[in-house]
Amino acid sequence: MLDSNKDSLKLEAMKRIVAMIARGKNASDLFPAVVKNVACKNIEVKKLVYVYLVRYAEEQQDLALLSISTFQRGLKDPNQLIRASALRVLSSIRVTIIVPIMMLAIKEAASDMSPYVRKTAAHAIPKLYSLDPEQKDQLIEVIEKLLADKTTLVAGSVVMAFEEVCPERIELIHKNYRKLCNLLIDVEEWGQVVIINMLTRYARTQFLNPNMNESLLEEGNDKAFYGSDDDEDEEEDEKDKKAEAPAMAKRKPYVMDPDHRLLLRNTKPLLQSRNAAVVMAVAQLYFHLAPKAEVGVIAKALVRLLRSHSEVQYVVLQNVATMTIKRRGMFEPYLKSFYIRSTDPTQIKVLKLEVLTNLANETNISTILREFQTYIKSMDKDFVAATIQAIGRCATNIGEVRDTCLNGLVQLLSNRDELVVAESVVVIKKLLQMQPEKHSDIIKHMAKLTDNIQVPMARASILWLIGEYCEHVPKIAPDVLRKMAKSFTNEEDIVKLQIINLAAKLYLTNSKQTKLLTQYVLNLAKYDQNYDIRDRARFIRQLIVPTEKSGALSKYAKKLFLALKPAPILESPFKDRDHFQLGSLSHLLNAKAGGYQELPDWPEAAPDPSVRNVEVPEWTKCSSREKRKEKKVEKPFYSDSEGESGPTESADSESDSASGLESGSGIEESGSGSESEESEEGSESEEEEEEEEKDKKKKKKELKKPVQESESEQSSEEEVRKHERKNKQRKSDSESESDEEDDSESESSRSESEDSESETEVKKKKKAAESKPPSKPVKKEKKEMSLLDLDDFEPAPSPQVTPVNTFLSSSLVTDLEGLSLSDTVLSPATTSPCSALKSYELLHRITGEGLCVEYCFSRQPFSPDGNMVAVQMQVTNNSTSDTKNLHMEDVKLQSGMRVKEFPEIELLPAGESATAVMGIDFCDSTQAANFQLCTHTRKFFVSIQPPVGELMRPVFLTENEFKKEQGQLMGMNEITEKLTLDAKCRNEHAIVQSVITAANLSRVPCGSDRECRFAGRTVTSGSLVLATVASKEEGAAQLTVNCEKMVIGTMLVKDILLALTQ
Amino acid sequence: MIHSLFLINHSGDIFLEKHWKSVISRSVCDYFFEAKDKAVDPENVPPVLQTPHHYLISIYRDKLFFLSVIQTEVPPLFVIEFLHRVADTIQDYFGECSESLIKDNVVTVYELLEEMLDNGFPLATESNVLKEMIRPPTILRSVVNTLIGGSNVGDTLPTGQLSSVPWRRVGVKYTNNEAYFDVIEEIDAILDKSGTTVFAEIQGVIEACVRLTGMPDLTLSFMNPRLLDDVSFHPCVRFKRWESEQALSFIPPDGNFTLMNYHVSSQNLVTIPVYVKQNISFFETEPCGRLDITIGPKQTMGKTVEALMVTIHMPKSVVSANLTPTQGSYTYDLATKVLVWDIGKLNPQKLPNLRGSLSLQAGAPKPEDNPSLNIDLKIQQVAISGLKVSRLEMFGEKYKPFKGVKYVTKAGKFQVRT
MHD domain spans which residues (chain B) (predicted)? Predict the structure, then answer.
């Protein structure tokens, strides 16, 4: 049929052949006939031929070569599916001769236009590697190239290839680390698993142990409880930070690498995946990498998996069992989820039991034991045996319940089922060994059982017990030996050995009664079939029966036999399994599987984090992102953008304007340099403070058309108060909104996040940027009608404010409410920060030879660069002559810092003063910026050092947002300090004033009047800084600062403390 | 990664094998058969087995074993999850996952497996991507194919494979645009002898059937999302949106899918819809026992309890049961020792009761444990946790879809200890 001309017949024939292959029958005889059809036009026939080829090419290498040319042609096909499948088949044909062809094809496909073909190329790499490992070096080059690929489709496959070919070349990941982290959520689920597992290993080599400090402490404190020792650590941490400066120097406080944080943050949402493997992968990542306080989040997700298929349960429970040994507290709230149902398969039951046992502690032991009681009655005897073991372990671990357990187990001795009794005996034996004195009655009881119990292990255990504690039961012991001697020949080997032991021990303690019996037993043993028993009998006879030849040893016989034996420790089989990476096959089997990569230990010192920096300068990255965006635009998936745009998206038209607004500020943020609203705004408010500059500004304003005119009204003092307030409200509202956007933007720029939201944000920005210029004039004409006005910040006449408000979405309204609540308090912060500004001296009048320079931090956004702190300088010429060409030179900075110089002041007449603004990017550190101040005659060395409070800018948060953010910055990131408020600053207003003076933060509305909350972000990295002052009776108060950057947090605490106590 | 796959039926015949790398002899399955013989129940076969050269990871679904052969380290859940996905796909294509159906469609299954894995690494597992590449068999299509020689295999790359919404294909068209959501809640509970709740929680799932034209963007919001303790989503759901405003926003896959799974924890008070009075006892002296079960409504939120069923796994020694139900019928399967009492609707006026005697094997000791009762029930039109969908909005398309939400409460693993 294969030779027929009709496709349908061919298809039928191929189907039969494939069915044969599927059933495992040999169809290799047909090879020549099938290969002919490789060039068949019908795609289904072609596919089936491919299937056949891949299966049999290895066996018929010569014939397979006939088909190669077809694939080579296929590789050039315009249809990407055909290119991909040609590569797939070509690489699957395991014929060594074509290795060079494959290599070439892979290299070509790796730079294919279609990501799907590139993905196939990534798949082909391990195939070629397994065929010919000598190609490794070339393949690594391809992997390196593909790792740089930015599409989600390729990421998973290439990491897979990386893992199979060169898992040791960890340095290949550096440059791609951040990209992988950011792409992760969009990668298909299988790729996610592989990437997460790889990143876990990577992180272990590159970052420091987040629990470092704790583990140091733990060495001192014996193993404490998880929950409690965490608290302790926090306290310790505080102490560290607070007082002991020298100690701090010695043991540097741990600061999590931002990349480490990035990984943790980006994997967390994946806990909600429907794919159990992904959830497990994230869980193991958190278990191995996260600070202790954060590991807890995985418990809930893992418990959820317990509802899944029984195989999934099996694997998850194994891992949970390992985790519970280390982190008991994590699963304690979910104790009941591990309760056992009679319908569970036995292996699941046993694992659940293991978990329950690990979770048992003083508080929950009674409930657990009650559960165990019902389990003991189960029909599943293996499970009952496991339960008894579990009770034994609970009893050893928790002293309080030992007696209860023992009593319960003794009751089980009267159980009808022999297995149960036997298991109990074994467990009781272990328990009794811990405190035999108290329990001679139990031993007696057990001695009686020897008549009934047939299970060898149990009999052996009883005999051992009696022998060991024969002094406690002097009357019964010989009797038992007598009975045993009678049945000796019929016993199992282990029982026989124990009978010999018993005899020996009795002989030593009570030789009068048992001498004959012992000899009888030994004689029987002498002729036993088992050589172990014969040996033992011979050995014991020599040892205990005194003969003339007996050596020195017999003197010590008693010591040998009746030495105190240490009680056995019952421990979990899952102990120490965590040296295997959780979730791995090796962990499950507790043995190293082939190809398993050890999870490395944390490094002592962190390797250079800068290796992960991608050299591409900021703006090109931006544009490349946008380029990618454009690719995405065609696809209709802009989903997350809406999720991101936050409070406004539900109102349709409004959202547009809001995003326009965001984009306005966003553009500036990303440094594209386009003139934007916010910068104008910034300069305007500057103008409010700086009377001198007014003229200059006015010129500018005039250029800026009527919109600005009303602004000047705003600054004028005749403005009606009410009106002003409304403006303010609107302004701060929009400010807060843009701030929020700034946050997300700066956050993303910090992490160089390229995940879809930020991408789409950029996209929006771009769109908005494009759409903006044309729309502007229109806007101005019909101001009243267009909602887009919102982003122009012009003060609408008061009646108009209300209609605008109705368009705001509900959440925005709540924002507004929050604002109006705190309006009075906020006003000093937003409108007149300059009143609270503190000026510092840069150049003294005397050293400056009459030139005096003071500077202050104006707390205005520095318009040319959002990452810079604006420094306002007041230059006064006190000398008698004019100063010319005042400018700065020779700037010396710490790495990473940048300075935007102030424009040269050409002429400063004697007795006059001038103001100049410069921007400094301090990189979130308090390092000083050194430079020279030059006049036409002289140079002065000066330096500006910022107080930590100036390294941030205010952020508006609602109370809920604040709480949420605070919740995420617990643990190491939280610093709490108790203080006594200065007498003058006990009312709320004073507190707010002094905190705002000390740090550039904004007030967060708060329901309670005893608490004042403040929020801000660091200027450079945009890390959130949250401060809370909770006042109590008589001036006592507590200050809490949450900040991801612990150094900043610590310094800020000091500053605020100082401000509040003086 | 995954090296080979064997499908094995209940009696231990290998009826399909597929190798993604070099061929592995089917004798490797002997280790599995050994383990299978050792375990009495097929459910008790360990999912992961170690053999000298390979690792075997297997799942048991619909009376079939899916056995995969692994050679190197791989997360076991990865394989297990994939095998389940294979079973799901087969079920999706042919309606159920049974030996005879797979045998009938062996070529399609083989092609599917070929597409799902490349060199042992999953390539395409989204059912709609697969369906574009290999079309599921329908009667109409097979007729058309024989007449005009069409093929079952797509010749272009499925659009889903490349887009960022791989779960939806482009160009979906319906004349009737409908979106249905079923909120199904299952009560997992353990009640002890006296009827007090030892443990209870609710597991919910939202199954969706969406037949909408184009690229709709849906938002489903709840009246009381705070109830939900833990959730997991279909990949289409935007997680950020859920975190910020507790609403499900997504571009749905076409057809049936599970939108979300959720969990209402035991911390919340879970209402138990029925109570059970039971008395099962075995006599010490004679080889027989007595059984008396009554079920009554407890908190049913004014709805009728339907499809009530009690399943009891009797001790091995129970030979026969001689019972009289006041409602419904009962069966006792001698081989598996399972007693099933199918009650049907629960009538609050006349409570169903099952009473009678059990006879035991002569000479067998009295079973020391009473069997526990597994209860099955269904309550229509109510979600027992009180979860309510408040509204469904659609963006991105112009037409008005028909929307519907249905609530059902079922008993999940509902067990009464006796």
Answer: 176-417
% pLDDT > 90, chain B: 8
Q: What is d(CA B254, CA B166) in angstroms, rounded to the nearest whole number?
A: 11
What pLDDT, on the 0 to 100 scale, is given for residue B84? 92
The DSSP H or E segment spanning A168 is none
> Would an 8 Å CB–CB cutoff place B50 in contact with chain A?
yes
Confidence of residue A976 (pLDDT cuts 50, 70, 90): confident
Question: Concatenated DSSP letters for A685-748?
Answer: HHHHH-STTHHHHHHHHHHT-HHHHHHHHHHSTTS-HHHHHHHHHHHHHHHHHHHHHHHHHHHH
pLDDT of B43 higher than 50 = yes
φ, ψ of residue A928 in degrees (nearest 5): -80, 150
Count Cβ atoms below 10 Å from residue A222 Cβ, excluding itself: 7
Residue A482 near chain B (CB below 8 Å)? no
Of A123, A341, A646, the CB nearest to B415: A341
ipTM for the complex?
0.89
Same-domain pairing of B209 and B292: no
Q: Chain A: residue nearest B18 by CA?
A: A22
Give the closest-approach CA distance of B296 to chain A in angstroms: 23
Confidence label for B144 from pLDDT (cuts 50, 70 and 90): low
- Residue B184: pLDDT over 90: yes
pTM over 0.80: no
Q: Please name the residue that has the structure tokens 């030059």.
A: A934
CB-closest option in A47, A153, A757 to B240: A757
Chain position carrying tokens 């946790």: B385
Of B107, B119, B231, the CB nearest to A19: B107
Is B124 inside a domain boundary? yes
Shared domain for B189 and B257, answered yes or no, is yes
Among the candidates A158, A192, A207, a domain finishes at A207
Specify whether the CB–CB gap between A197 and A581 falls below 8 A. Answer: yes
Does residue A336 belong to the interface with chain B, where contact is any CB pair within 8 Å? yes
Give the chain A residue nearest B23 (alpha carbons).
Answer: A55
Expressed as residue numbers, the domain containing B207 is 178-270+384-416
Which of A85, A379, A412 is the best substitution to test chain B (most B C-beta atoms within 10 A)?
Answer: A379
For B307, counting Cβ atoms within 10 Å of its Cβ (0-12 exposed, 13-18 middle, 19+ buried), the class is middle
Q: Hey, how many other C-beta atoms are within 10 angstroms of the C-beta on A247?
A: 11
Q: How many domains does chain B have?
A: 3
Cα–Cα distances in angstroms (integers) from residue A868 to residues A324, A499, A821, in the given order:
48, 86, 31
Does B199 fall in a domain? yes
| Cβ atoms of B46 and B107 closer than 8 Å | no
* Number of domains forming the structure of chain A: 4
B13 plus B76 within the same structural domain = yes
Mean pLDDT, chain A, rounded, equals 72
Half-sphere exposure of A289 (CA within 13 A, CB side): 31
Mean pLDDT of chain B: 83
Q: In chain B, which among 108-127 make CB contacts under 8 A with chain A?
A: 109-111, 114, 118-119, 121-123, 125
Q: Please report whether residue B229 resides in a domain.
A: yes
Same domain, B300 and B347: yes
Model pLDDT for residues A331-346, shown as the tens digit of each residue: 888 888 888 888 888 8
Q: Which residues in chain B touch residue A312, judged by CB atoms under 8 angstroms apart?
A: 77, 80-81, 84
Closest-CA residue of chain A to B189: A341
Q: Confidence band (pLDDT; 50, 70, 90) for B80?
A: very high
Q: What's the domain range around A552?
A: 454-564
